[in-house]
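re: ur question from yesterday

yeah so i grabbed the chain u mentioned. its 493 aa long if i counted rite. heres the sequnce exactly as i have it in my notes:
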Amino acid sequence: MNAETPDRFDEKLRARSRSSIGWTVTRFLSDQLFSFVVFVVLARLLSRTDIGAFAVMAATAEAFRIIATAGLVQTIARKREVTPAFLDTIYRSQQVLSFISAGLIMALAQPIADWMGVPGIALPLAVMSLTLPLSSFGSTHLALRLREFGHRTTALRSVVGGVLGGACAVAAAFAGLGLWSLVIQRIVTELAGVVLSRRSYDWKPGWNFDWGILRGNLMLNASLIYVQLVFLATVRVQEVAIGAGIGLAAVGVYRTAWRTVELIGRGAIQPFTQVAVQTLARVKNEPAELRRAYQWMIAQAAALSFPALVGFGALAPVAVPTVFGDKWHEAGELAQVFAFMAVPFTLNFFASPSLSVLGGSRSLISLSTTQLVLGVILTLASLPYGLFAVAISYVGRAYLTMPLQVFLLQRVSGIRFADTLRAVGSPLVASSVMGIALAIAMRLLEGRMEGWTTILLLSPLGGILYAAVLLAISRPWRQRLASTLKRTRKSRI
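ran it thru and got these structure tokens back, copy pasting raw so excuse formatting
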């Protein structure tokens, strides 16, 4: 757009963002719900060592996935106009990088297994590397669909892939295939996703490859690749350290606790961050509109993520062993520690896409490097004291680096901490009140009520209390509710 028609976070863009968020929420709710059900079944059928071994394998595969994609597909969302040469170059380059990465994993599988002291993961890890070249056949099509706010398609893709992959994993686990059931899940899910991605967008790849385009984008994305690898290492370094210092069974406990919190957090936050890339990219040159769009999105995310994580944290010691089985009792207590991540978890999910869209690559490098270095130091210092010390150090690292994250965002975008606080303040207060009430209720019911009875009683009561407090203390949320009810009435007429 030219100077006479600046990009604005107006009702049209807000409506497109709202629609995309709606479909993305649908996708994540169904995806996360089904993933959770599958995870529960597998956690009951598989051993803690199997879960821990797969966590190590997944960390390896994810690192090579970042290298294989090289940030190329993400450039499709940021590009103002895409040409056939640009798309062909992105598509073919990612294919080559994916096949090379898969080959490297196969070559390194045995050395990695020997280094971790678990030779049994070498072959499953090598087979799982096939998901990298598989995904390269559909990722460009999916990125083109998302560029047009086509999140309805991704919802279908995710649900179908999750159902097929999960069903195959559960069947394999019942057949006694152990660790292989998780590998089968990854491959089937990826294969279904590729088929649906290619059907979602009518584009046929060509061979109009341009070395200049590839070099330019690789140089542009070098910082993004580095940041993604460092963020992955920040999250996974604890599991590797625990595996080497305590054992794979301990990794299984740690991973189960974190995975449960992650499922809840991602389901509440990621629908908004995925749409944020497209939305913020359109208003990045208008500071006032950028601030409005950022506040609107992070407010919606916080309103879901804060009560979900805080509420789960209060119930985790009962909920986790009840759902997953008694062997995961320690994971329930560990999950309670991770639930304190609600605030930095939410803000961190918005930091990366926001800084990336706004061209803050140096800020992202500074933030991610600081998080990794501090995380490694705290992890190694806490490891001799056990799993809970490592978990506490991870949560502590998140809060210690949060001021830097806020400062860097303000420097790049002009969005102040006060703007963020204004957007998330009311959900934070309301969820804190709910969390305290649930903790008190848990104490009062201890010995009188157990398991599912406690969960089914306190979960809806916590939700009602949170909504009541939020509406009581926040005029903007009362206005949002009134506006939503008004639109609903109009749609029925």
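noticed a couple things. The two ends are 36 Å apart (CA to CA). also Residues 46-209 form one domain.
anyway ttyl
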